[in-house]
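User: What would this chain look like folded?
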Amino acid sequence: MPQTATKLANRSGASLGSPSGSDQLNLLEIEVIDLFVNAVKTLGFPKSVGEIYGLLFISKEALPLDTLVDRLQISKGSASQGLRLLRSLNAVTSIYVAGDRRDHFVAETQLKKLAAGFIREELEPHISSGADRIARLKQNLAEMAEATPSTDSAFYEEQIDQLERWNTKGRRLLPLIAKFLD
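Assistant: Here's the prediction, encoded as C-alpha cells.
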C-alpha cells in the first residue's frame, strides 16, 4: 500500500468491508484518494485537495463539508479551502439535497471539464503573465547593457528569446489541448 494510503488507513482505522456510509474509509476509498493525492502533488496543489476530490469521486452520494472533515480527518479550514479551489477549477459542484440546508458536493468526472478548469485557472494566467514578465526582462536587459556593456548580453538576449518562444508555443498549445479533450 502506498505511503499516503497507509497513513489514511491508519488515521481512519480502515477495513475492506467498511460500509461507504460509516465514518471510516474502506480500503478502496483509501486507494482512490491516494491516487488523487499523488496526482495533485504533481500539480503543486495541497494534499487535502486530492483527498477531498478522491473521496467525492468514489462516493455514491453528494457529501457535505462536515462529512468530508470527519471522514478524511482534516480541519474544517483545510476542507473549506480545498473545496474553494476545487470549485474554482470546476472539479466539484454543489448540489441541493432536499431537507438539508448544507451544501453537498459531487466530483466532476468529465476529463474535458476538469482540464478546461485547470487550463483556465492555472495555466492561462501564468502564460499571460509570462508575456509581461518577458517584456520586463527585455527592458531590464536593455537598461543593464546600456549601463554596463558586457559580453554576456548576447547570451542573456538568447535566453530571453527562448523564453518568449516557449511562451508563444504555450499560448498556441492551450486551445489545442482543450480541443483534443473534446
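Strands lie at 63-64, 92-97, 100-107. If you want, I can go into more detail on any region.
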